[in-house]
Amino acid sequence: MGKVSVWLKRSYIGVISVIAGIGILMLGFTLFSHGYMLHEEELEGLVSGFHFAYGFSSITLLLTIIGGFGVWKEKKWALILFTVGMILCTLYLIVNEIGLLLIPSQLEVSLENHYISMMPLSKANETEIAHLNNTQSELQCCGLLSYKDWDYEIPKSCLCSEKSTNPCVAAPRNSSLFIEDQIVMIYAKPCLSAFSTQILKTIHAVSGILVGFILLWVWSVASCIAILCQLNKKVETPKVVYSSEAKAGNYTSLTEAPDTEIT
After folding, report:
1. Is-above-0.85 flag for pTM?
2. Domain enclosing residue 36, as ranges
3. Which has the closest alpha carbon to 213: 47, 72, 25, 48?
4. CA-to-CA distance for 16 and 60, rounded, in angstroms?
5. Strand partners, 186
6. Poorest-pLDDT segment among 55-59, 64-68, 194-198, 242-246
7. Residue 67 CA neighbour count, 13 Å, CB half
8. pLDDT of residue 173
9. Are residues 69 and 129 in the same domain?
10. In Å, what is the CA distance from 88 to each residue of 76, 82, 98, 237?
């Protein structure tokens, strides 16, 4: 069995420690989110996502423990198991990254089809109206394509605030917000484009994080493979030549030469 480089060991231990930290943070964040949304109505649609997060973070932690044990005890089976598991995780992350890169091209059409089905907005159900009101207040917008999507029942969430950074227009005189002898300003920007921009920013952020994860995972796999290669490397030992004379004990005694008289 070959000897593993100290620097390679340190590099490997460092990267799996970072990955273990990420796994712990993911598990903690998932537990917190699950507990926070335990009584929410939308929890049923998120159950599968929580289960995946639990599984992925737990498997990541387990693999790092196995990988750390393998490099500490120099056990090849543990290092091989770590390598195979991390390669599978890396492939899954790459597939998700490709999926995120394909989303922007279909996002606008999907959002438009989803929200246009809610038209007219004044006749949408209470859950959809509550969601739109929150979106309008947060993104400083009104309506999907314009404020006219609300017909004459424009909600108060469309009212332009004093700290608004988006342009505002006067509300129609026949709208529910109109007040005699006053100019009521509402957001002019439609929400569909603002919502699409926000989602794209989130997708780009998640995509960047995934790229970082992939690089870490690949680094750990490459380090582990390098350690396995060094462990499998045969150590060359010097050849020992045996002499039959040495075996028979044919030795010559070394004696001091007799002192000679100096005349």
Report:
1. no
2. 6-104+203-232
3. 25
4. 10
5. 159, 169
6. 242-246
7. 33
8. 77
9. no
10. 19, 10, 16, 38
Question: Do 23 and 95 share a domain, yes or no?
Answer: yes
CA angle 61, 38, 60 (to 5 degrees): 10
Cα of 254 vs its chain's centroid, Å: 77
Indicate the pLDDT class of residue 263, thresholds 50, 70 and 90.
very low
Assess if residue 112 is contained within a domain: no
List, in sequence order, every residue forming a beta bridge with 170; answer none if it has no partner.
185
Token couple for 180: 């005699």
Q: How confident is the model at residue 238 (pLDDT cuts 50, 70, 90)?
A: low
Q: What is the pLDDT of residue 219?
A: 95
Closest CA to 67 of 199, 204, 227: 227
198 inside domain: no
Partner residues linked to 185 by β-bridges? 170
With tokens 């507990």, the residue in question is 35
The DSSP call for residue 250 is: -
Question: How large is the C-alpha radius of gyration of the chain?
Answer: 35
The secondary element (H helix, E strand) that includes residue 170 is strand 168-170
- Sign of CA pseudo-dihedral 140, 145, 150, 151: positive
Tell whether 207 and 92 lie within a shared domain: yes
pLDDT in tens, 15-24: 999 999 999 9
DSSP letter (8 states) at residue 175: S
pLDDT score at 89: 92
The encoded tokens of residue 113 equal 């089809």
Between 56 and 176, name the one with better pLDDT. 56
Place of tokens 């387990």: 62
Residues 81 and 139 in one domain: no
d(C-alpha 17, C-alpha 23), whole Å: 10
